[in-house]
Automatic annotation (TrEMBL):
It is found in: Cytoplasm. The keyword Flavoprotein does not apply. The keyword Chaperone applies. Residues 51-64 have a biased composition (Acidic residues). HAMAP family: GrpE. Belongs to the GrpE family. Residues 100-127 form a coiled coil. This is Protein GrpE. NCBIfam families: PRK14164.1. Participates actively in the response to hyperosmotic and heat shock by preventing the aggregation of stress-denatured proteins, in association with DnaK and GrpE. It is the nucleotide exchange factor for DnaK and may function as a thermosensor. Unfolded proteins bind initially to DnaJ; upon interaction with the DnaJ-bound protein, DnaK hydrolyzes its bound ATP, resulting in the formation of a stable complex. GrpE releases ADP from DnaK; ATP binding to DnaK triggers the release of the substrate protein, thus completing the reaction cycle. Residues 28-46 have a biased composition (Basic and acidic residues). Homodimer. One of its GO terms (biological process) is protein folding.
Length: 242
């Protein structure tokens, strides 16, 4: 009897599983439901991933648009400004013919200015030379006056003094020294210095010459010192007849 009882128990266990087919169906339904849940979860995950990718793509597009709006557009605007500036520079730049004409005018103007400069400096140089000559000759005029007085007294008729006088006056003549102021000359207040006026009429002439006047190359060096007198009678009669 002891040996038969366990066999009955094993039969009862087998009888429970085999005797309940609903349990087997429930187990299959659970597995199927779990599988469907896994599939749905996979689909949801894929959809979420797709949405995330679309969002990232949209964000990338927005970032690209933002980059174009700032850096790229600024670069394009700068390039356009440079092109416009270059075009304006090319349009305002003179042609080769215009540049050649301008340079020719500059050279002509420079040549004219240089010619004027040479003439001006030459005139100034000549003026300096004339001033120096005048200062030297002015120092010789007292000697010339002494020679004139000696000639009036007959001291220069002959001898070595006459030879020296002649050579000295030849040098002054070479410098174009000219004496003026003789009795009977018409009185000119610019070149004559009147010490005394003894004339009675409107016409005034040189009566007595106290000191000769001199001009160097047409330039007045010293006025003549004279006494004014009436014209000679012969000069008055000739002027009345005319």
């Amino acid at each position: 009897m002891t040996d038969d009882k366990p066999e009955v128990e094993r039969d009862e266990d087998n009888t429970d599983v085999d005797a309940n087919p609903k349990l087997i169906d429930l187990s299959s339904d659970a597995k199927k439901a779990a599988k469907d849940a896994d599939q749905d979860a996979s689909k949801d995950a894929e959809a979420t991933a797709a949405d995330t990718d679309d969002g990232d793509a949209t964000d990338d597009d927005d970032a690209l648009d933002a980059g174009i709006d700032t850096a790229d557009l600024a670069e394009v605007a700068a390039a356009l400004d440079q092109v416009a500036a270059d075009a304006e520079a090319e349009s305002t730049e003179p042609s080769l013919e215009e540049q050649l004409a301008e340079r020719t005018n500059d050279l002509q103007r420079l040549g004219a200015e240089y010619a004027n400069y040479r003439r001006r400096t030459q005139a100034e140089r000549e003026q300096v030379i004339e001033n120096a000559k005048a200062q030297v000759v002015m120092r010789f005029l007292p000697i010339v006056d002494d020679f004139g007085l000696a000639e009036q007294h007959g001291d220069l008729a002959e001898g070595p003094m006459k030879a020296f006088h002649d050579k000295f006056m030849n040098v002054l003549d070479g410098l174009k020294l000219q004496a003026f102021g003789d009795p009977g000359d018409e009185f000119d207040a610019e070149t004559y210095e009147a010490v005394q006026d003894m004339s009675t009429g409107d016409t005034k002439t040189v009566g007595t010459v106290l000191r000769k006047g001199y001009k160097l190359n047409g330039r007045l060096l010293r006025t003549a010192m004279v006494i004014i007198a009436d014209p000679p009678a012969d000069s008055e009669s000739e002027s009345d007849e005319s």
